[in-house]
Specification:
Distance between the termini: 34 Å
CATH superfamily: Pseudouridine synthase
Number of domains: 1
CATH architecture: 2-Layer Sandwich
Oligomer: single chain
Strand content: 25-35%
Shape: globular
Number of strands: 12
Structural class: alpha+beta
Length: 229
């Protein structure tokens, strides 16, 4: 039974040109190439609006802010901003590990679909330049709460970069291997949330910021292990 419906997904903003939503964890952004019948956000939007244009994507298990265009003109304008790295993206995450720093920029080059598991891998020779800024908001002896600002937007960039420095995202079963995660605990969720996007929706229009509330399971863990309300 499909647990996702259009009416269950919070709309953060909508006008004649775009719709901005808070995507739930576990829902694909677009149709799966091998299992097109799997629930996905684009199909739910098509059922409601007819034609819809994908501007960017979030991983299935990543929640948070996502933007779709309602016409080709808006799609072209928004897509150019993402392609030219003019969009500011902010993520919140719980990572396994205890970093000795408060802020760190990761600049390892990345290669998408770089191994048999189709992971994005750090490849110093053949990878593309990638940049992710991490800030520690809170931590205990085993986990860290991170504010993350990716300057580039490669598939699984945050997950690959965090795992690459020994701070895999809590619940990331694809990228945790090889990391000493210490006092880990079992969870069915990936603790990575697209918290905010700052973008211009129309030419000559001021930048707008859209923020997505954390899922309840994320808020509960944040309060439990970091005492952050």
């Amino acid at each position: 039974m499909n647990e996702f419906s259009f009416d269950s997904i919070p709309i953060l903003f909508e006008d004649d040109n775009v719709i901005v939503l808070n995507k739930p964890q576990g829902l694909l952004t677009i149709e799966d190439g091998y299992q097109p019948e799997m629930p996905n956000l684009r199909s739910l939007l098509k059922d409601r609006y007819g034609q819809i244009w994908t501007v960017h994507r979030l991983d299935k298990d990543t929640s948070g802010v996502i933007i779709f265009a309602k016409n080709s003109e808006s799609h072209k304008f928004l897509n150019a901003q993402f392609s030219n790295r003019l969009v500011k993206k902010e993520y919140h995450a719980v990572a396994q590990g205890f970093p000795p720093w408060v802020e760190k920029t990761i600049g390892y080059p990345l290669k998408t679909n770089g191994d048999r598991k189709h992971r994005t891998v750090i490849d110093l020779q053949n990878g593309k330049l990638a940049k992710t800024l991490l800030r520690v908001i809170g931590k205990n002896d085993f986990q860290s709460y991170l504010d993350i600002f990716p300057a580039t937007g490669y598939t699984h960039q945050i997950r690959a970069h965090c795992a690459g420095i020994g701070l895999p995202i809590l619940g990331d079963r694809l990228y945790f291997r090889g990391c000493d995660v210490g006092n880990s605990f079992e969870t069915d969720h990936l603790f990575l949330h697209a918290y905010a996007i700052t973008v211009s929706l129309q030419p000559n229009e001021e930048l707008k910021q859209f923020m997505a509330t954390l899922p309840q399971y994320f808020s509960d863990v944040r309060k439990l292990i970091f005492s952050i309300p």
